[in-house]
UniProtKB/TrEMBL annotation:
Signal peptide: none annotated. The lineage of its organism: Archaea, Methanobacteriati, Methanobacteriota, Stenosarchaea group, Methanomicrobia. This is Ferredoxin. GO terms for molecular function: 4 iron, 4 sulfur cluster binding; electron transfer activity; iron ion binding; oxidoreductase activity. Ferredoxins are iron-sulfur proteins that transfer electrons in a wide variety of metabolic reactions. Pfam families: Fer4_21. Keywords: 4Fe-4S, Electron transport, Iron, Iron-sulfur, Metal-binding, Transport. Its cofactor is [4Fe-4S] cluster. InterPro entries: 3Fe4S_ferredoxin, 4Fe4S_Fe-S-bd, 4Fe4S_Fe_S_CS, PSI_iron-sulfur_center. Residues 1-30, 31-58 form the 4Fe-4S ferredoxin-type domain.
Length: 58
C-alpha cells in the first residue's frame, strides 16, 4: 500500500507534511501534497492528519 493524494480535495495546508515521520511529503508550487512512494512507509499518519480527507491508502 501507498498513500495517494486526491488533487481535488488537497488544499496544500501542510499537516500531512508535519505528520510524516520519514519526510516523504512535500507541498508543490500548485499547493498540492506530493508523496514520494520510495520514501513512504505506509504508516498512515498523513491520512489521520489530513483535515480534508484528501489522502488515502491504496
Amino acid at each position: 500500500m501507498v498513500a495517494i493524494v486526491d488533487p481535488d480535495e488537497c488544499l496544500g495546508c501542510g499537516p500531512c507534511v508535519d505528520a510524516c515521520p520519514v519526510d516523504a511529503i512535500t507541498i508543490n508550487d500548485d499547493d498540492l501534497a506530493i508523496i514520494d512512494p520510495d520514501l513512504c512507509t505506509d504508516c498512515g499518519e498523513c491520512v489521520d492528519a489530513c483535515p480534508t480527507e484528501a489522502i488515502s491508502m491504496e
